[in-house]
Request: fold
Amino acid sequence: MSLGGPPLTSPRLRDGRQVPPPELGDARGSFDPAREPIERDAGTVTADSQEIGQPTPRRRRAASPAARRLGSAIGVVVGMLLLLFVNVWPGWQVLPFLTAETVDVLPWINVSLATGVVVNLIEFIFDRAWLKALGDFVTTSVGLAVTIRVWQVYPFDFGDSTFPWDIVVRTLLMLAIVGSAVGILAAVVAFVRALVRGPDATTRPPRG
Reply:
């Protein structure tokens, strides 16, 4: 009499002994989730070995020598244009918020711009890591001195404007001073590391 369930299977006989029927998953070719590989985006995982394929981290690619020289060339052109703009045409006088005290900081600004032009020109010719770090140290130090001088003189007058320009400018100058100090320390560290690598090392870091 059948009750709707699976038919009963009598035990098999092997060499005169009763052999129990195979259990689910013992048959050859059956699915066993413990042994099947699990596909992931980063690799393949198997439950037996518990090995997880980790994605290989991407290294940040350094700029090529051509790109670095292009950046130096742009720095030279921009510095020369700023020198022309400030001193020749149209001149710093066209900015209405600058006062007559600007002449007290103008030599400092010219020195900063000229230093940037010279450093970028040297870096355009010579691609050396220690030279790049030394140039960053020089330009950042000069920029820090100029920013402190501008803070002292403060050649700005925004008239009766309701916007708090004085607070904004003072805040920006303070951030520039702090950022320059941090940049000087970073340039010193980069210079020492470049000397450890060797004086002939380029600005491209060694591949690990």
About this structure: Residues 65-197 form one domain.
